[in-house]
Amino acid sequence: MTIEPNGDGRGQGGTVVFRGSFHRARRERGDDLAPGDAQDLVARPTATGPWTGPHPANVAALLALAHHVQRLIDAGRIADRAEVARRLHWTRARISQVMDLLLLAPDIQEEVLFLEAGTHVTERGLRAVVRHEAWRDQRNSFAASTTKLLPRKGC
Questions:
Q1: Within a domain: residue 83?
Q2: How far is CA 101 from the centre of its chain?
């Protein structure tokens, strides 16, 4: 890499031009959401090899994460959502968005958890459903938004 100063050489005016390539190295974060021994309530499954089944939709993984985080908070292993945000290196607003998925009606949550990758149900779309306080209204909104997106059962 070379640095070429432009200007009069006296530090007044001009710009500095960098020529070369930059490489951004990503380092692995060694952070764990809840370090320590796993209790029965939040026991971690043991790895048995690479997953060969269908991949879940991104929104399903976020909903599962929200449930996991809520269990950790309820068990007292994590103090609050702000601590979750610090440990995951996310903003508190992003944690709130993900945790708001827990406000969905239970039957909608179940349907979302079993979605496979490639479905067009997005987190942004579910945020519009969560805005409705009544579960009946959520069900109507979810049905209206997914009628054209999800494949019909039995076809």
A1: yes
A2: 11
Distances (CA, A) of 1 to 7, 94, 147: 20, 38, 55
Within a domain: residue 131? yes
Residue 104: which of 150, 55, 68, 137 has the closest Cα? Answer: 137
49: left (phi over 0), alpha (psi -120 to 50) or beta: left
Does residue 13 come out as left (phi exceeding 0), alpha (psi in the -120 to 50 range) or beta? Answer: left
Residue 2 maps to a domain: no
Which helix (H) or strand (E) element contains residue 16? strand 16-19
Could you tell me which residues are beta bridge partners of residue 56?
A: 116
Q: Which residues on neighbouring strands pair with residue 97, listed in sequence order?
A: none
pLDDT digits (tens, 9 = 90+) for 70-127: 999 999 999 999 999 999 999 999 999 999 999 999 999 999 999 998 888 999 999 9
Give the domain extent around 116.
54-146
Alpha-carbon 87 to chain mean position:
13
Does residue 11 sit within a domain? Answer: no
